[in-house]
Amino acid sequence: MNTMIYTSRWDRRSYLVRAGDAISQLINVVLLNGMPDESVSGRSYRNYKMLGIQRWAVTYYIAEALFYVRDRGDHCRLAFIEDVERARMRSLCDPFTR
Question: Which residues, including other chains, have CB under 8 Å from residue 35's CB and lie 6 or more apart?
Answer without folding.
Answer: 28, 29, 43
